[in-house]
Structures are given as structure tokens and as C-alpha cells.
Design goal:
17% helix, 9 strands, 2 helices, rod-shaped
Length: 178
């Protein structure tokens, strides 16, 4: 096999690749027969090699190619410039506004019902002050000191003649023997 044959085969494969590239883009290649490219077969007969060539550009295309340099700005693709991020909104200091309407003040709760109690006695000794209170409904008697609870009321004060009870801001006084 002559040494020139493998190089012509490589040329033919390259030309076929170019032809395929043009077919994919819809262009019709031009086939040129070059008589100087001949090969000899194993029988000794000469064969011509058909090499596809690129389509010949029109006069307008040639002018455009010559006038526009390869690296001219008109031939370079536009660069992607990301959009500028939107500025973050500025937060204004919150100022509480006057309400358009005023909510009515809630009505105060009615004072709690005073307990039905009677003061029967008072004692002051080393343990402190104590008052003996009686509930007439169940006839029970018990000694109470300051801070003790009775029927939801708190003992907040006492003297020899009276005991002061409070609940939710209301005050009730139980007097001795009343």
C-alpha cells in the first residue's frame, strides 16, 4: 500500500464530517472532483477521489466577511449582564397612630357579694392578732389571722372591734356582734 493512501483517507473522512455539518444546517455542499487526487487500487488501476468542499459564499457574503474583522464588536456575542438587585426597602420607624374609634372602657365588675359573717371575738397574744368569725349558714366558728382566706376574701386588717376583708379591690368590714 502506498504511504500516501492513509493521508488521503484521513482527508476524505474530514471532508465527510464537514459535509455532514453542512447538511445538518440545511446547506447543500458542493462536490468537487480533483483529478490530481488519484489513488491506485491493488490491481494497479487509478481511481479519482471525490472530495466534498464547502459552499462558495455569495458576493455579498464575501464583502461582509472582508469588512467585518473576526474580532470586531459586531461579531462577538453579547455578554450576559445580570440585573442589578432591587434595593431593600427602607423600614420606617413604627409610630403608633391614634385609633380612629375608641374602644369603650370595659364596665367595672360589680362588687363581689359580701360574705355573711359575724365577728364573735378578738385576741392578741405572742402568736399575733386573731379574730373569731362565725358563718351563720353552717354555724361554724374559726379563728383567722392577717392574710388568711375566707370564702374568697382575704383578711387584710383587724382591731378589737372589726375585721377588714378585701377581694378584687372591694372592701368589706365585719363588726363585732353585728
Amino acid at each position: 500500500m502506498p504511504p500516501i493512501l492513509p493521508s488521503w483517507a484521513a482527508l476524505a473522512i474530514g471532508a465527510a464530517a464537514v459535509t455532514l455539518w453542512y447538511y445538518e444546517r440545511g446547506a447543500e455542499p458542493v462536490f468537487v472532483v480533483l483529478p490530481s487526487l488519484t489513488t491506485q487500487s491493488s490491481t494497479g488501476a487509478s481511481e479519482e477521489v471525490v472530495v466534498p468542499s464547502l459552499p462558495v459564499p455569495t458576493a455579498e457574503q464575501r464583502t461582509e466577511i472582508v469588512l467585518n474583522a473576526l474580532f470586531s464588536p459586531s461579531r462577538t456575542p453579547e455578554r450576559y449582564v445580570p440585573p442589578e438587585p432591587e434595593p431593600e426597602p427602607e423600614f420606617e420607624e413604627y409610630v403608633e397612630e391614634e385609633p380612629i374609634f375608641e374602644e369603650p372602657e370595659p364596665e367595672p365588675l360589680p362588687p363581689p357579694e359580701p360574705p355573711l359573717l359575724r365577728m364573735l371575738g378578738y385576741i392578741r397574744d405572742d402568736a399575733g392578732e386573731r379574730a373569731l368569725l362565725n358563718d351563720p349558714n353552717d354555724a361554724s366558728e374559726r379563728w383567722f389571722s392577717l392574710g388568711d382566706q375566707i370564702k374568697g376574701w382575704t383578711v387584710t386588717g383587724m382591731t378589737a372591734s372589726e375585721v377588714t376583708l378585701t377581694q378584687n379591690g372591694s372592701t368589706f368590714i365585719v363588726k363585732l356582734y353585728e
